[in-house]
Amino acid sequence: MAKVLVAFLFILSFRDAYCQQYDLEYYVATGLSNSPLLKDYDNQILSAGIDSQLVKSVYKPQANFTSSNFYAPVINGYGYDPAVTNNGTYSSLVSVDQAFTGRKNKAAQLGTVRLQGDSLRNGKKMSEQDIRRSITNQYIIAYGDWQQLQFNEEIHKLLSQEDTLLRKLTESNIYRQTDYLTFLVTLQQQELQIRQLHLQYQTDFATLNYLCGIFDTGLVSLTPPDITVLPLPDKTSSVFYKKFMLDSMILDNNQALLNYSYRPKLGIYANAGYNTSALYQVYKTLGTGFGLNFTVPIYDGHQRKLKTQKISYLQNTVAHYKNFFNAQYDQQQAQLKQQLDNVESLITDINKQIRYAETLISVNGRLLTSGDAKIADFVIAINNYLNAKNLLAQNNISRLQVINQINYWNK
Questions:
Q1: Contact at 8 Å (CB) between 199 and 394?
Q2: pLDDT of 345-402, one tens digit each?
Q3: Spatial separation of the C-alpha atoms in residues 164 and 404, rounded to whole Å
C-alpha cells in the first residue's frame, strides 16, 4: 500500500507542473515570428525593391571621371623611344554615356524584378502555410497526449477510491485475496501508464517548442485546438496555383528579354578634359568630344535559338506540373472529405460504446459496495472503458489532423 500511495503522490505532482496554459494560436504566431525562413523571404522582398531602383538607374546618364598619366624618362640616352612615347601621356576626362532603349525593353527589365518580387511574396505565403500545418499537427499530437494523460489520471483516481473500499471488503473476507490482487495489478498498471503518457507528452511537447523556436524545458497544459474546416478558395486563385502562373510569366518575360537583346542598340557619349603628351601645354589640350555607338547583331553561333529552346523546355515542365497539380488537388480534396466523414461517423459510434461502458462501471461500482459483484467483472468494465476512451482520443486526433490537412489549402 505504501507503494501505491507514493505512486499516487507522484501522479499528483504532474498536475502541479502544468501551471500555465497556452493555445494553438500562441504557438503558430510564435513559430511564424521566429522562423528564419520567413525573415529570409522578407529580406529578399526588400532586396527586390532595391533591384527595381537599380534597373531604373541603369537607363539614366552614366558619368565617370578617368585620369591616366604615363611618364617615360630617357636617362643618358637610355629609355623608350621618344618618338613612340612622347616621353609620356597625360589625360583627365569626364565622360557621360547614355544608352537608348525602347519602352517595351525597359518594361520587360522592370517586369523581371516585379515578377521576382511577386514570386517571393507568393513563396512566403506557401512557406507560412507549411509552417502553420507543421506546428498545428505537432500541437494536435501533444494535445492528444495531454488528453490521454488527464483521462488516465481520472481513471486512476476512480480506481484509488475503489481500492480503499475493496481492501476493507477483502479484509472482511467478502472478497478473496486473489480477486483483490487482480484489481491491485490493474491499479498499478494504470500508474505505469500515466508515467508513460507523461514521458510521451514531455517528448511531443518539446518537439512543439522546437518547431516554434521556443527554448523552454518547462511543461504547460494545452487548451483544446480551435480547428474547424475553413472554406477553400477557388483553386485557380490559391497561392499554390499562382506559383505555376508566376513561373510561366517569368519564362515569357525571359523570352521577351532575349528577343530585345538581339535588336539594334544605340548609345551616345561625350567627354571633356585634357589629353596631352606635355604637361606644360596642358591648357592648349583642353577640349571636348562626343560620339555615337550603334550595334546590330548579325551572327551569334545560334545562341538565340538554343536559349529559346531551353525556355521552351522549361515552359513545358511548368505546364506538366500545373496539370498534375489540378488532378492531384481535386483527388486529394475528395479523399480528405471522405476520410473526415468516416472518422466523424466512427467517433459517434465510439461515444455510444463509452456511454454503455460508463453505465456498466457505475452498476458494478454500486454492487461492489455490497459484495454482489465480482472484482473481475469490475476490472473488465474498467478496461473496456479505457480501450473505448483511448480509441476515441485517437480518432479525435485523426479528425483534427484531417481538418488541418484540408485547411492547408485555404490560401
A1: no
A2: 999 999 988 888 888 878 877 777 666 667 777 778 888 888 888 888 889 999 999 9
A3: 45
The residue ranges of DSSP E strands in 49-136, in sequence order, are: 62-71, 88-100
Give the N- to C-terminal CA distance of the chain in Å, as an integer: 58
Architecture of domain 2-59+101-262+297-407: Up-down Bundle (1.20)
Radius of gyration of the chain (CA): 39
DSSP 175: S
pLDDT of 12 > 60? The answer is no
In Å, what is the CA distance from 142 to each residue of 39, 137, 243, 397?
27, 9, 33, 10
- 372 vs 358: CA distance, rounded Å: 18
Cα distance between residue 330 and residue 16, in whole Å = 48
| 107, 111, 280, 298 from 48: Cα distances, Å | 16, 11, 51, 34
Q: How many CB atoms lie within 10 A of CB 380?
A: 14
